[in-house]
Amino acid sequence: MRLFIGLMFASLLGSQPANFNLGQLDTILEESVSSVNRGVSLTLVVDGQTVYRKSFGLYETDRVVRIASASKWLAAATILAVVDEGKLTLNDRADRYVRQLDAEKGAITLRQLLSHTSGLVPDASCLFSTSMSLAACVDEITAEPLLFAPGTRFYYGNTSLQVAARMAEVAAGKPWATLFQEKLATPLEFRCTRVDGVGSLANPAVANGVVSCASDYSNFLAMIAGAGLYKTRRVLTAGSIKEMTRDQTGGVPIQQTLYRPFASLDPNLPLMRYGLGVWREQTDAVGNALEVSSQGAFGFSPWVDFPRHLTGVLSVESSQDAIMGTYLELKRAIRAAIPVWSQRPVLPTNAASYTFEALAPGSIIALFGNAITRAEPKTLRLTSPTQVARELDGLRVLFDGVPAPLIYSDWSQISTVVPYEMEGRTTVTVQVEQNGEPGPRSVIGIADGSPALFTVGAAGRGQAAAVNEDGTYNTAASAVPRGSIIILFATGLGVTTPRVATGEVPTAAAQTATPVRVSIGGLDSQVLYAGVSPGSIAGLYQLNVRVPPQVSPGSAVPVSVQAGTGRSTAVVTIAVR
C-alpha cells in the first residue's frame, strides 16, 4: 500500500481550495467605513476554511474590541458546559444557589435567566462595579421588584445573565473567571478574550463586559457549528447546542427586544425569538434554527449559518445603529454568493486522469468542489488489516445509498472508490454526507471500464508512475529496456476474478474480469497481468506489461490502456531505451 499512498498524496499536493465570488462584500464594507468609528473587518469561515478575512479603514482585522452583548453567547456556553457536567440543570431554581430570595424570585429557573423571561429588571448599576463581588451584585439585582411573573414575558436585558453566572459559580464551586477559562478559553485557544473588559474578575459584567477579537470568536463559532466539537475537543454536548438554538421563550409576548428600532430595515427583526444566549435570526418551517447570532451594542456581530456551514464575525467598535444596515446587506450578499451545503456543485472525476466520464465499479475517483466537506485533511483509515473505512469522522460518500471507502478528504476534494456493487447500473447518484446530514450530490454514468494511468506529476498526463523490471522507477534517466517488463498503475479496470470486496486491501492477486489491452508507442503489448495490486486498496490496478522489442525508444513514449468499452484518453508516457 505504500506506493499507492505515495501516488495519491502526490496528486493532492496541487489541490488548492477555490473561493466563492465574494467581491461584492468589499464594496459593502468600503461604503460602511464613513459611518463607523475607525473602520470594520469581516471574517467568514466555511467548513473550517477561511474564505474572507479583510479589514477596511483604520482597523486591524484582529482588533481587540468591546463585544457588548456578544458576551451573552459566551456566557451561555460556559454555563451549559457546567450543565453538561451534571452540576446544574436548566430547570434548576435560583433559590437553590442564591440566598434570600422570596418565593416568586426563588422559582426563577436557569432556563428563564438565559432566555430573558425571568422578570428581573434588565440592568443594574452593580454590573460595572469593581468594588463588589458577583454574589453581592446578584443580591442587589434580586432585591429589585420583578417586572412580571417569571416565564410570562420576554424582556431583553443584562442582569439575568449575572444571576445565571452566580448559579454556575456556586454549583461548580469556582469563580466565574475560572469557569470561563476552563470551559471556553483554554479548549478554544483564546488569546485575546477577557471577561473583565468591563467590571472586574471578581464581578465581571457577564452579559456585556467581555473584550475579544475576530479570531477568538471565530474559534467559538466553529465549536457551535461543529455541534460542540472544536477540532478534536468536545467543548459542549450536541444536546446543549440544540438547546441553545431552540426557541426558549415559549411564545410569550415580546415586551422588549434589541431589534425594535430596526423594524424599518426588516419588519421581521422585532419578531425574532431567543434561545439560550442567542437570537434565532432564521428558522425553517418547523422552527429549527437556521441562523443564530448575538449582536452587541457597539456593532460587534457574530453569527452561525447552519445550512451553509458558515460562521461570520463582523468586527466593529461603533454602534449597532451605525452598522445594522451594513450587517443586513452583507448577509444578503453572502447568502447569494455561498450556496447552502446540500446545493453546492460537486464534480466526480477519474482520480488518475481527472476526466469527467462514465466510471467503472472499483474506480478511484476524486470529487471536487467548493467547501464540499470540512477543511481539516483526513486520510485513509483501516477498520481491519484488510479493509478501508467507509466513514471518516462522520463523513461518508454514498453511491445510490451504498457507502464507499474513503481515501482522503479536505475542503475541496474527496478521494473515494466507486463500490463494486454498482456493477450493472447505468447511472448512480453520488452524495456526500456529514454526520447524517445529506450534502452535495451528483449523478455519474457507470461503464464496464474507464481506464486511466496514474502519473508521477499527478496532472493526469505526462510521465507514468511506473516501475522497471529491475525495481527502479521509470524516468528519462532510468528508462526501461525494450523487450523487458514494466509495471504500470491504473484505475477504472472494473470488477475482478475472483471478486474482491469494496474497500478491501487484497493480499493475493485477482485479475480483471474485463479484458485489458495496453498499447506502448502505438504497438499492442503483451499484458502478463492485469488485476489488483496486492497490499493496496482494491481500485488500484497493477499492469505487468512487456515493452514491445520493436518500439521506437525515447524519453516520452505514449502508453494507453483499454478495458472493456473504455479507453484511456490522457497522454501518458514512459521512457524506453
Commentary on this structure:
- By secondary structure, the protein is of the alpha+beta class.
- It folds into 3 domains: 2-17 and 343-445, Immunoglobulin-like, CATH 2.60.40; 23-337, DD-peptidase/beta-lactamase superfamily (Beta-lactamase); 452-576, Immunoglobulin-like (Sandwich), CATH 2.60.40.
- Strands 25, 26, 27, 28, 31, 32, 33, 34, 35 and 36 form a 10-stranded mixed beta sheet that branches.
- Strand 31 (516-520) and strand 32 (523-532) form a beta hairpin.
- 50% of the residues are buried.
- The model is unreliable at 1-16 (pLDDT under 50).
CATH architecture of the largest domain: 3-Layer(aba) Sandwich
Q: What portion of residues belong to β-strands?
A: 25-35%
Please tally the β strands and state the result: 36
Count of distinct structural domains: 3
| Rg of Cα set | 30 Å
> Which whole number gives the mean pLDDT?
94
Poorly predicted regions are 1-16
Helix count equals: 11
Shape estimate:
elongated
Q: Which fold name is given in CATH as the topology of the largest domain?
A: Beta-lactamase
Distance between the termini: 29 Å
Structural class: alpha+beta
Mind telling me the CATH class of the largest domain?
Alpha Beta
Helical content class: 10-25%
CATH homologous superfamily assignment of the largest domain: DD-peptidase/beta-lactamase superfamily
Largest sheet: 10 strands, mixed
Task: Please write out the topology.
Layout (H helix, E strand, L loop, with lengths): L1 H11 L10 H10 L6 E8 L2 E9 L7 E2 L4 H14 L18 H4 L3 H5 L19 H9 L11 E2 L3 H14 L3 H10 L25 E2 L1 H12 L3 E2 L2 E2 L3 H8 L8 E3 L16 E2 L4 E5 L5 E5 L7 E5 L4 E6 L4 H18 L9 E4 L13 E5 L9 E2 L2 E3 L2 E2 L6 E5 L2 E2 L2 E5 L2 E5 L9 E8 L2 E9 L6 E2 L8 E2 L2 E3 L16 E7 L4 E2 L13 E2 L3 E5 L2 E10 L8 E6 L7 E10 L2 E2 L4 E5 L1
Parallel strand pairs: 4-8, 26-36
Antiparallel strand pairs: 1-2, 1-13, 3-5, 6-7, 9-10, 10-11, 11-12, 12-13, 14-15, 15-22, 16-21, 17-18, 19-20, 19-23, 21-22, 23-24, 25-28, 27-28, 28-33, 29-30, 31-32, 31-34, 32-33, 34-35, 34-36
Helix pairs in contact: 2-11, 3-7, 3-8, 6-7
